[in-house]
Amino acid sequence: NAGVMQNPRHLVRRRGQEARLRCSPMKGHSHVYWYRQLPEEGLKFMVYLQKENIIDESGMPKERFSAEFPKEGPSILRIQQVVRGDSAAYFCASSPTPDTSGNTIYFGEGSWLTVV
Amino acid sequence: GESVGLHLPTLSVQEGDNSIINCAYSNSASDYFIWYKQESGKGPQFIIDIRSNMDKRQGQRVTVLLNKTVKHLSLQIAATQPGDSAVYFCAENMGSGGYNKLIFGAGTRLAVHP
């Protein structure tokens, strides 16, 4: 998972505040994925993005959550009006342009969000 | 719905022994599977993958076996070391249109004792 950079690593927010998580994919990768992991659980798919496009957001909550991957700069996962249930580890992953399903996805070290 | 699950939530082994971690999947159309290792406070680390047209693949000290008949996946770690202690996840690719959409199992915690 070297190369996928996430920040901040740890973030504490009060209920009602906004959380912004950033992800820079590995060099040469133009595909970004966001996953959420609750304590003692597996990772859950949230969203898949290419540059300037959201391809699959089927795992994103309908409200308060949004993601973007602009032409320049990192991908951003934004959570508005956070609630305690948003407390989790959020992982970003990237892959090169997939010619066929099966290109390895590499994960970052995660951003741990705690809502108090 | 489709899901990926694990048989054993915790596995304790002696250093030097071989470890086997099992995983069941439910989507017979899945064509790509990955095993990840996750240490506390870190992101998932790729271990090994296998496509559905194979039934076995070997890496360094690790082997993945795929049994499509019973939809079962296993990870074998030879000569387990203390550094292998972690949570191991199998993941099933549910993506279409040329991208990976991984569905993860709940994980198995591997504890290696000296």
Name the descriptors.
heterodimer, A: mainly beta, seven-stranded mixed β-sheet, four-stranded antiparallel β-sheet, B: about 110 residues, mainly beta, six-stranded mixed β-sheet, five-stranded antiparallel β-sheet, 11 strands, about 0% helix, about 55% strand
Walk me through what this model shows:
The complex is a heterodimer of chains A (116) and B (114). Chain A contains no helices and eleven strands. Chain A has 116 residues and is an all-beta fold. Chain B is mainly beta and 114 residues long. The radius of gyration of chain B is 14 Å and the shape is globular.
Number of strands of chain B: 11
- In the predicted model, the low-confidence regions of chain A spanning at least 5 consecutive residues are none
Please tally the β strands of chain A and state the result: 11
The Rg value of chain A, from CA coordinates, equals 13 Å
Overall geometry of chain A comes to: globular
End-to-end gap of chain B = 41 Å
The share of residues in extended strands of chain A comes to: over 45%
What integer is the average pLDDT of chain B? Answer: 88
What is the C-alpha radius of gyration of chain B, as a whole number of Å? 14 Å
What is the fold's blueprint, element by element?
The complex is a heterodimer of chains A (116) and B (114).
Chain A lengths: L4 E3 L2 E4 L5 E6 L6 E7 L5 E8 L2 E4 L8 E4 L6 E5 L8 E8 L10 E2 L3 E5 L1
Chain B lengths: L3 E2 L4 E5 L4 E7 L6 E7 L6 E7 L4 E3 L3 E6 L4 E6 L8 E8 L8 E3 L3 E6 L1
Parallel strand pairs in B: 2-11
Antiparallel strand pairs in B: 1-3, 3-8, 4-5, 4-9, 6-7, 7-8, 9-10, 9-11
Summarize the structure.
The complex is a heterodimer of chains A (116) and B (114). Chain A has 116 residues and is an all-beta fold. Chain A has strands at residues 5-7, 10-13, 19-24, 31-37, 43-50, 53-56, 65-68, 75-79, 88-95, 106-107, 111-115.
